Amino acid sequence: MRERERSRGRRRRALLWVLRVVLAAVLLFVGIAIGRAIESAPKPGGTQARVQTIEPNTTPPVTRTVTVTTAGP
To answer: I need a labelling partner for 9 at 20 to 30 A (CA). Which of 26, 36, 37, 64 fits?
Structure first.
C-alpha cells in the first residue's frame, strides 16, 4: 500500500514539473510575440509622403481679336 502511495506521489510531482516546464515555455513564446509586436509597431510622429498625380483641366481656347493702334512718328 505504501508503495502505491509513493508511486502516486512521484507521478504527481513529475506531472507538476512537466506542467511547470510547459507553462514556462508558453510564457516565453507569448513574451517573444509581444516583444516583436511592440518592436515592429510604427513610431508616432513620423514623416509620411503622399504621391498623387493631378490631371490638368483642359479648357477650350478663347479666341479674341485684339486691335492695337499706335501713334505714328
So the answer is: 26
